[in-house]
# Entry
Amino acid sequence: MNTRLIRYLPILSWGRHYTRSDLGNDLTAAFIVTIMLIPQSLAYALLAGLPAEAGLYASIVPIMLYAVFGTSRSLAVGPVAVVSLMTAAALSNIVEQGTMGYAVAALSLAGLSGVILVAMGLFRLGFVANFLSHPVIAGFITASGIIIAASQLKHILGISAEGHNLAELVVSLGRNLGGINWITALIGVLATGFLFWVRKGLKPVLTKLGLGAGLTGFLVKLGPIVVVVATTAAVWYWGLDARGVKIVGAVPQSLPPFTLPSFSPALLQQLLLPAFLISIIGFVESISVAQTLAAKKRQRIDPDQELIGLGVANIGASLTGGFPVTGGFSRSVVNFDAGAATPAAGAFTAVGLAIAALALTPLIYFLPTATLAATIIVAVLSLVDFSILKRSWAYNRGDFAAVATTILLTLALGVEAGISAGVLLSVLLHLYRSSKPHIAEVGQMPGTEHFRNILRHKVITHPSIVTLRVDESLYFANARYLEDRIQARVAGDKEVRHVILQCSAINEIDFSALESLEAINDRLREMDVKLHLSEVKGPVMDRLAEQHFLDQLTGRVFLSQYEAVQGVLA
Amino acid sequence: MNTRLIRYLPILSWGRHYTRSDLGNDLTAAFIVTIMLIPQSLAYALLAGLPAEAGLYASIVPIMLYAVFGTSRSLAVGPVAVVSLMTAAALSNIVEQGTMGYAVAALSLAGLSGVILVAMGLFRLGFVANFLSHPVIAGFITASGIIIAASQLKHILGISAEGHNLAELVVSLGRNLGGINWITALIGVLATGFLFWVRKGLKPVLTKLGLGAGLTGFLVKLGPIVVVVATTAAVWYWGLDARGVKIVGAVPQSLPPFTLPSFSPALLQQLLLPAFLISIIGFVESISVAQTLAAKKRQRIDPDQELIGLGVANIGASLTGGFPVTGGFSRSVVNFDAGAATPAAGAFTAVGLAIAALALTPLIYFLPTATLAATIIVAVLSLVDFSILKRSWAYNRGDFAAVATTILLTLALGVEAGISAGVLLSVLLHLYRSSKPHIAEVGQMPGTEHFRNILRHKVITHPSIVTLRVDESLYFANARYLEDRIQARVAGDKEVRHVILQCSAINEIDFSALESLEAINDRLREMDVKLHLSEVKGPVMDRLAEQHFLDQLTGRVFLSQYEAVQGVLA
# Structure
């Protein structure tokens, strides 16, 4: 079969070998994931500022499309916490929450994000995601988790509060604290407590009771459904909605509707940066889950095709009443653990959620939003992990600065400013680090042909020779630094007649660095000092040989540093 | 003497050893530079959109302050073409040219730029200038030269035209071409032609006549003064100003006045980015001239102190009726060639110009602006050098792209957009390049302990071992690429039991890369494959040893690749 077609439609590869045993495994996994996803997808719609049904819609068509275009066998695509938060942050700046325009803008955001992802996949631009360093992502996720949890407190307490960063949220909550609805607060606190207990306390109990790991895991996953059923029943039985407990209310009984996003240029322009950030964050979250799970079965993930898969899923979300989606960590792990063999498990999950959207929505009329908020809080607090601060501090102060800045700015200014500052800072830190590369002056270790740092070892040197070893590729950001260093070293020492650059650690020399080498060569010539090179790597030498630099070089090029010193002294 | 004081006040160092012979040399150089600077400084004021006297003022106090704070013995500080163009571009967006607000905004721009430079010097942030790669600067200077020349055509032709990029200028010139003042055009064309001839044609003639090199050089430098005198006399004698020839007009006879820039926060905010760009461009231009000249006398330039020197010079310009200044290429070379021994030459030049400002300004009343425009055009066309396109193309397509983009965007959109795009593009290109590092799978050369690329050499490999050599430091932008490559290589080959990373070219591993190595180790463990490291550099090993990574590593760390293969097979 056409390999190009298989690259773009991975379903053609696994679909041909689909077995009855795969079917059984996929159906089981789909059942478990569906049960987990019903409360989760409602909750994330709430987080994104959308009506509850949008969460179900966003979990149906996108997951089916990903099954066709994605390369991971286990990834479950749908609304996730951080992306939902970013969606709310992006849209609230532009349109008022709860309006029709808000829902349409959500469709546009998903569509735009989808187009960006597909384009990045087709042009193989996945490397852009690499600019998000691990520390920045870890800091961002932690800070987002805190903001999300804080943003849900209003639902737990039954008050209103606004804000897209921690300060705004805390101030707003504090101001409205007088209006607490105590029944809502009781439901919220009990639900949150119960869910925490299910996570931390129930598992050991069940295991002690002698239940198998599989059954234990399944029962723990039922926790959210139990809370949903219990609190819904309570509101319905005691008529608590009449006493001020906010409920989900009427949800249309419907399959995902066909929707069209707005193509207003002004709107799209405002959404462009948020859509880009959502795409990148979503992709990074998704690909790392996908690769971790694929490794367990020695399967391969194609990052560029993943971009296409996620992009098509988002375009699907924008056409079926959804909002931005990506591969989620917890649901994918559940899917994998439940034995999902192929992406068909995702398709079956979609069928399960479609049935829920058609048949079960009347049952959640009385579901309190406080319960959904409790689900979110318990889910996101597992994202909060301050240990990254300690670990990065131990490893490298620069990385620590990137984490700390990302966390602080995300908390203080919101998600977009936080992630942008984090990326900018890590790029600047990288440039700064490589702009002052380690340059050692070296001499010969007595009795050997090895050359070592004169500051660390007792080595043999010659007053007329300065040998510098640059431990970094030469490029524009550090080329001028080398000029400065050489000029500073030679200008003050009238005995120097030869400068040897030991190039063993130089993997590349860009055009700027070539011009700097020419400048160094010219300036040394003015001082009557010769410039020599030693241990130049093959590809670097090939490049240099094409240019006039080697003709102009006042000195010579030596294969080894030892030969260089011998040759110069001879 | 206090070394800290000497660092910040280099005059304390050279001033103590000042000799009578230095005085003679400095006075001669100052005389020649003064003659050269009078027309040039008037012209650059015109280019910056300011009254002619601003050019003189900007050449007096700044050069004296630089003499106190700067480290170059030969640098001549004052208005230069590119910075004047950037000044005009920055100010015209904010205030109307010719108004009082415009001149005040110019003072603010110089002051802001001065503060930025001093701050960068005190905090040793000179490395920021390194992000301007050679190709980007070369492209920018070339494009700026073209824009400057085009912007002066209106003065040559005696028409009006507006615009800060080539397209705007050409359209505007074309529209007004009907209004040519033919007398102005005659003066302009003759002056331009004469100046070109002085540059290219006069020198050989004089040399043939047997004049010495020094006298020839001096006579050639008199060219602009000759044109100024001749055209001024012509306008005065024939009363051409009454026939539409634009003249400089009344210039106050005065020493530089004491002025205060505007501190309006709104204005300063609008000027911040332009001031930053002007500071960086000015610094880069200045430092490369300074270093080239210093090398000829084996002197040392301190880049951080240079920032302070230029910064104080600009603050001086803002307090004495000037505009942004920097070290100029041509005047510094003239200063050096004329024998300037110390920065005192600059101070004497300032005295010369102060005398000119006091005594000679009535003489330039009838000086036609077309003559000044001719001076500018001839000066800047020497900046235009398209050979950078050819040279960078030959060396590296990425560098070529950076040059071409910078030239095109500067011409099309103006100086600020051009330089910003160039910097952004070269940073992105660098990140892109290092995000896909060269990773070679290597095998043992028969009969040796060397390991080479399996694609290039006939080498010995073992089906259970994959050895990868990464030719780049590992950091966030390429860490995930390594994950992808290893996963892709191992997932498809069931025989692999060991992956060895040959780390001989890895100069650094940042925190992101460490986390990636942990992920690789974990994923390989899932596939029942061990990860080993070989030839890890000392500092990298020190870092790794502080972390838990080495404890978790499924395989071992070997001193050499040869030992690694032996150890794994044993």
